[in-house]
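tl;dr need the bound structure. longer version: we got a ligand (pantoate) that a collaborator sent over and nobodys looked at where it sits. i said id run it. heres the input, straight from their email, havent touched it
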Amino acid sequence: MMKILRTVEEIKAFAGTACQQGGTIGLVPTMGALHEGHLTLMREARKHCDTVIASVFVNPTQFGPNEDYEAYPRRFEEDCKKLEEVGVDAVFHPAPKEMYPEGYAAYVTVDGDLTNKLCGARRPGHFRGVATVLTKLFNLSRATDAYFGQKDAQQVVVVRRFVEDLNIPVRIHMVPISREESGLARSSRNMYLSAEEKEAALVLSRSLGKAEAAFEGGENSVEALKKVVREELGLEKLAEIDYVEIYSFPGLKEIAEVREPSLLAIAVKIGKTRLIDNVILGSER
Ligand code: PAF
């Protein structure tokens, strides 16, 4: 039977017992509204870890004032059924006050090159909220291993940075993007899309595919590859580009040509919904 943990004391007790047993503890942090992409992370954790803890917490500190914190889908009962099916041992589902009680004042920030671009530049304070909640979740769960999706590639880079800098003893695993058959990257925010918008949203993966094909055909110029993506996105009238960027990966350095593994990342608004997607060019598959 999967345990439902709602308080800091409950997760501490659960993790304490798991720790005494001496095995590995896999944590899969989520904001819920679970889809197949999340479940892939859970299965990965289940395959490799003795104990698996999922967290379902819509973290208020990582949302900006004009973002979708209130509207973010909450489906805890459905989530529990899915987690139980993939064999998760416990789910941590705290109330916001449990994580950020009266007087809460400590935050984790990651400065510089890793956060001043891509989603970090468009969503001020976002990675501070992510790093803060994850530090708390790593401490509480005593995770030896934690699993994240490549769809949030910048998040993975930021997490690896603060885990190393703050000497947090957890291994960070990045799992490839889970896609629907149509190519659409799975995301809880896909729930916001109407049927017409969902169709329009296919332009994200299609544009990345075109750039990937150009790269594989010998095109290395960052400007030329970005142009391929922009042109394809430009054909979809419901798509409004937020960014199309290419940086070295995982360093996120500016480059003029793709000569090492590089992240081609895009953020696009389809109607009111902002979606992200990416591909890593030049990586061994
Ligand atoms: O990727 C997410 O869903 C969130 O940023 C995370 C890692 C669960 C932290 O709230």
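gonna send this back to them w/ a short note. Residues 29-31, 59, 62, 130, 133-134, 152, 155 surround pantoate (CB under 6 Å).
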